[in-house]
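Handout, page 2. Input:
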Amino acid sequence: MALKIVFLILLFSFRFRLSLSGNGQTTSMESVPDLQKSMYMVVDGYPCVRLVNLSGEIGCSNPGRDKVVAPIIKYKNNKELGQPSAILLSMDDVQGFFLRISNDSSFDSNVAGVLVESRVEIQHKLKGFSPARKFPQAEFAPYHNTNYEWNPIGSGIMWKSYNFPVFLLSESSTSTLQEIAMKNEKTEQAYTTNVAEFDVVMQTTKVGTHESESCLKEETCLPLGGYSVWSAVPPINNSSSNQSKPIILTVASMDAASFFRDKSLGADSPLSGVISLLAAVDALSHVDGLDNLNKQLVFLVFTGEAWGYLGSRRFLLELDQQSDAVRGLNSSLIQLVMEIGSTGKGFSQGNKTFFAHTQVSSDTNEALDALKLAQESLKSEGVTVSNASSSNPGIPPSSLMAFLRKNSSTSGIVLEDFDTVFANKFYHSHLDDSGEFISFLFVFLCSSFFIMLLKLANTLGIIYVAANINSSAIVAAASLVARTLYVLASDKKDSTSSALSSINVNASLVEELISCLLDCDPGLSCELVSSYIISVDTCPSHYVGVVLGEPSSTPSPNQVDDISRFVWNFLADRTSTPKGSTTVCSKDCSNNGGVCIRAETDGKGICVNSTTRYVPAYSTRLKLDSGTWKVLPPNSSDPMGMLDPVWTESNWNTIGLRVYTVQEAAYDRVVLLGGISVTVLAYLAIVLIRAYITKALKQD
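Output:
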C-alpha cells in the first residue's frame, strides 16, 4: 500500500504537460497562466465608462461590486430575453436598442451587458450615427432658441445612465464573438454555453457616490480636464511696457467625445479645425516681417470643450485673474475671436465651400471683408466663403459661446463646413474617423492591386484617402484662415498683393497631421510627432481625460496628454523667432523669454524664442485644497459657472472583457447526483463484496 502511495505522489509531482497537435505544430501548457489562456479568451474592445456630474450620472458600469457573467446571444429586435444575457449588437441596431432599453423595463432588466460590433463598411450602410444631443450643450448658448436642431440625427443616448457594461469590439473580436453567438444559438439545448465576463466595476458605483461633490470628497472620481495651449505671433516681449497691440485670437478645439471613452477620434469635429489651425500657423511662419504687424496674432487650442466648454471658460477666468498661464495677454485688447470649427467636409463638386457664422459688429464686418479678400486671392483654387443663413438662431455650438456669455459684445466668427445643420453625420461618434473610403474599397473592390495603388498614391502625396474628412478641404480652410489673419493684422486690402499670394499651406503637412492624429498607423509614432515628444500611446484618442496632480502653467510631461504636448511643441517651434537661432536648453532659457522644445526626445532639448504656454482646463467651480478637490459654490457673476455641471470620471481598478465556456447548472447537478450515486453504489458494492469474502474465508 505504501509503495502505491509513493508511486502516485511521484506521478502527480511530475511536470504537467498537455500537448495539442495540429498542422505539425505543438502548443504546450507548462504553467497555470498557460492553462488560463487555454480556458479564457481576452477580448479587445473599448469600454463605455461612468461619468458623474453635480446632478447624477451618465455612461456605463457594472450594476454592483462584482463582475458580470452572462451567455452571449445575438440581438433580435422582436425577441424577448428569457434570462440575463450579454447582447451582441450590430451598429445598425444600436440606436433602436438603447431606445428600447429606455422604454421597456422588463427587457432592460435582462440585459447583463452589451457587445457592439465593428465592421469596416458600416459607415456606408448607416445614414448617420450621433449619440450626442440635437443641440449639443444648448444650456450654454448665448440665445434663447435652444430647441433648434444643429444635429438633427442626434439621439442623445451617450447622455443617459446604463447599469450594465457596454463594449465596442475590435474588428477581429467582432468575428470571433459572432461565431460564438452563432454556436450558442445552434446548441441551445446543450449542457455547455459560452459566456462573456465583464469587469467594469466603477468606484462610484461600488461606494455609492453618484454625484460629483460626494465622489470628489470620497476620492472615487477625478475631474475631467487637461491642458489647453496658446502661442503668439510674433512672440510677446513681457519685459516691454508697451503691450497695446489689438489681439486677434484664433481658436480651435482638440478634444472629442464618444459613447466609448478611448475611441474618440473626432476627425471632422473638431480635429479638422485643429489641423487647419496648425497648418495656418506653419504657413504664416514662412512669411517675412511678422514683427511689423499692426496687430498681435494669438493661436489657442482648447481642450475640454465637449464637456461644458471647460477649456475656454477656464482660459477666460485665468485672464481675469491675470495668472502666469496667460502672462502677456489682456482681455481688453482682444479685438476679434476667429474660431476654426469643422472644416473636413467643406468639399462639394470640386469646390471648397465654408460658412462664416458671426455675431454682427464693426470688427466682425472687418473680418468678413478680410475673409472675402482671402477668398478672392484663392479664387483659382475653387475656395468660397458664404455668410451663414440669417434663419439660424445664432452661432453653432462652439467655444465662441463662452466668450459671448462672458461678454456679449465680443466680436467673433466661427468658420464651419456647414450652414444650418451639421454636415458631419457622425458627430461625437466613434465613426467620425479617417478610414472610411479605404474600407469602402476593401469591401467593394476586393483587389490587393487597387489597394496597393491607393497606398502608393497616398505615400507619394498624389491623393489622401479619408473618410469623414477631405484633406483638400482642410488645406483650403487653412489657406483661407492664414491669409485672412495676415490681411487683418497687416491692414493690407489688396487681394492681388505678392505678400498675400506667398502665403501657401503645405498640403503634405496636412496629410501627415491627418495620419499622425487620426490613425493608428503610423499614429503618434509618426516621424512628425516623434521629432517632438515620446508618446505614451501609438493610437491617438482625443478624449479629454482627467486632471492629474495640481494644475499648473508649467506642468510636468506626465501631467499632460500626448496631443497637448505635441501641439505645445509644434506651436512653440513654428512661432519661434528668429528662425534657425537655437541653443541647447539651460536654466536661463525661460528667464530670457524662451521655451525648451524637443526635450523629451533627447533629454536636452532646444531653447527657442517663443511665447507658448499651457493653460489648465478644468471646471471653474473646482479648487484643489490640500490634495482634495472641492466644489465651490455658484457665483452669480459667472452665468456659465452657474450652469457648470462639474464633470468627473469614476475611478476603477481594472477594466476587462473575456469569454469562456461554462456548463449548465442543471448538468452540474446531474453530474453531482450521478457522482453521489456512483459513490454510494461503490460503497455498497465494497461492503457486500467484503462481507462475501469474509464469509467465504470463514468457511475455508
